[in-house]
Write a structure and sequence with these properties.
The chain is mostly beta strands. The chain is built from no helices and 11 strands.
Length: 154
């Protein structure tokens, strides 16, 4: 179960990597994710987990669009557990079931790292058992001055 979820190659980057996501299953039945993307300044990166295959169906019902979004400007950062109920701004999950979360930006690459249980009791979280579908997104503007910080639609 450990491995790389995927990567997207870009012609305009020095090492050819535009987006990568990896995960590692931990002994405590949790999973640690790391997501990196070469992005313009003040943009977010995210990783979503869904139990549906269609992008349109992600927005129907609770726990279909379980998403972690983060951004870092170098001096400010945020990372949130969110969920999708419509094709609009994501709702911040009141439960915040991620732990050991961090967001950083180094040399034009934004990286978020977080850990979550494979199975959460939160209705807004999608179980990671059995196999699920992953959604990769990046590029919307991050507003660090708003409370809570806003991740604008990409």
């Amino acid at each position: 179960c450990n491995g790389t979820l995927g990567s997207l190659s870009c012609d305009n980057t020095a090492d050819g990597t535009c987006y990568t996501a990896s995960y590692a299953v931990q002994p405590d039945d949790s999973v640690t994710f790391t997501v990196s993307a070469r992005t313009p300044a003040n943009t977010w990166v995210g990783l979503g987990v869904s139990n549906v295959t269609s992008n349109a169906d992600v927005y129907i019902g609770p726990s279909n669009g379980d998403i972690v979004l983060g951004a870092s400007s170098g001096s400010n950062s945020f990372i949130h557990d969110r969920y999708a109920v419509a094709q609009a701004e994501l709702t911040i999950d009141p439960s915040q079931d991620i732990r050991d979360a961090s967001a950083e930006r180094v040399d034009g690459v934004t990286t978020i790292t977080f850990n979550r249980l494979r199975n959460s009791s939160d209705i807004n979280d999608t179980s990671l058992d059995p196999c699920r579908f992953f959604l990769f997104a990046y590029g919307g503007l991050a507003n660090f001055t708003a409370v809570p910080p806003i991740a604008e639609y990409h």
